[in-house]
Amino acid sequence: MPPLELLLQQAWNGVMLGVMYALVAVGFTLFFGVLDVIHFSHGDIFMLGAFTGLTVLAGLRAAGVGGALLALPLTFAASILVTGAVGVLAERVCVKPLARASPLMTLLATLSLGLVIREAVLIFYPRGADPKPFPRLLPQGGVELGGVAIRYENLAILGIGLAAMVAVDLVIRRTRMGAAIRAVAQEPEAAQMMGVNLDRTVDATFFLGSGLAAVAGILSGLYYSEIHFIMGVTGGVIGFSAAAIGGLGNVYGAIIGGLLFGVLQTTAAALIPRGSEFRDVVAFAVVMVFLVFKPSGLLGEKSVERV
Amino acid sequence: MSRDLAGVWLTEAAVFTLVVAGILAERPWALGATGGALVAAGGLVRFVPRLGAALAGAFARRRAAALAGGAVLALALPLALRSSPYWTFVATLALLYVTTGQGLNFQIGTAGVINLAGAAFAGLGGYAVGLLTVAGGWPAWLAVLVGPWAAVLVGTILFVPILKTRGHYLALVTIAFVFIFNILVNNLEFTGGPQGIKNIPTLSLAGYAFTTRPALAGVELPAHANFYYAALVMAGLTTWVLRRLHDSWLGLALNTLRDDEIAARCCGVSVTRGKLLAFSIGNFFIGLGGAFYAVVVGFVSPPDFDFGYSLVMLSVIIIGGVDSIPGVVLGACLLVPLPERFRFLHEYRLLLYGVVIVVMLLYRPRGLWPARIRRYR
Q1: What ipTM does this complex have?
Q2: pTM of the model
């Protein structure tokens, strides 16, 4: 049994990963809420967010904007706009036209779209096949708290992630558009009869979710100091797993699911032999077993079948 | 009546000639011309109703002759592709995808059990062959027959979460399984890690090694011709078996299960039994494809069975036509060779592949050869 400090340290690292997973998972769950589909290219949109962030940062540096305090907000804003627009485009081209077809169709269509996005980055980004170093913009150094090393960088990542989640929560609970999103998620036809513009609401949902993926992408770049064009494959599957653990359609469930998945991964890495290689095996196996006992997630609606 | 026969065989011969010409065309204009001719012929049949109806009628009346003609042409393919041996190998691969595609279609199309772990089950078959032959010293043909049972066995273990979950959650369970499989074979010692298993012995029957180049009346066939014929027999048998199963009471029961579980249960169809049967039968044929792949190529490694190949298998059955047995054959024979044919596009190949799949889904959502409604006489 590893010492308690190690477990605490791993749990803290897990929370860091979990914040990023949660941001991706919220996107999955929001899309599922309004259209009842899984948007599988979301993982690659997460990757696109990271690459857009890197490009914007390079551009800002070339333009002479060096300070992190100015550069980071600009980068986040630009990347959110870009991925948001790509997300809406993806929805218009291949999610909504197929939303009424069998789930298998949207599955294959969005998986293929993810392939297109991935290949486009690989081909059109200069030397796209290589891992790209991501600049360290956050304050370095750290403190030790009860045997757990806490880096300032990680605190900043946690802060940005939490701020993004609170912002989404406010949008969903306090704005007119948020009310429309909730209404469509509950019952699209009734919402339309009450004067909700369905198309605009769906667009807004995809913009919101894809923008969050950009935040997650940049945070992931800052955390690992490196991004790669295939990061969206695992990132997407983990985000989907997190959303499913929490219960598809429930935003809070997705956040809890993301954090759980992150902590599960890092504690598994500490507890089992050769943990860093097999941690994902444990994490995915736990997700499978979990779904046996909770087939619609933690906070998911219990589906009642009618004949 | 003999007009029907002539029509059927002439059509088949014309399509065969155009396809072979398209495969062997080296200059872009030649490829464009044959491709254009194929599209024009397809358009002619589709937009001239009398011609289309006449051909459809001829094929319907002369089914046996049409199948026989197809079989003869399939046997003649390596002979026609002699100048480019690589294409016999690609044709073999396409036939392997027919086998796995039929298995996957029985699960997804007939029974509605979504399985995105096709690559993992094919991998189980392939790795089983690798371990049995290299570590266990078994003869290759025996390993190919036993290997698929590894896929069936692991499938039954995975069956509990599959039975419990529905829809998107079910998709997640199978995706998670592909990732687990890939990480495991990549990191375990006995599967050879990232190197995989090398030097898998080739098939040999009664002392005749399949790698020898067969000669037919003095004409040498390409190196992979033996494998091509073996794969042809395998794909043909698989298609025949699954067609019989699909048309049987089991297939009908699975269809009702797919369309409405509660209604099926009310009619006395056991959900557990039906899904387990469909899942296991499907996994056997998916594993068989993987097992045969291992002896054709001679090695197995983790990237041969990653999630991307699940996607290819899924696109084969959806583009062909879900629950349509001829559709799967068509899908595999289009989707496997086409990216190879367009290798000159280099890195743009996969990008275009993705675009083509999306466009096909938007404009032909029921597939190229949609399943017909069952008719019982």
Answers
A1: 0.91
A2: 0.92
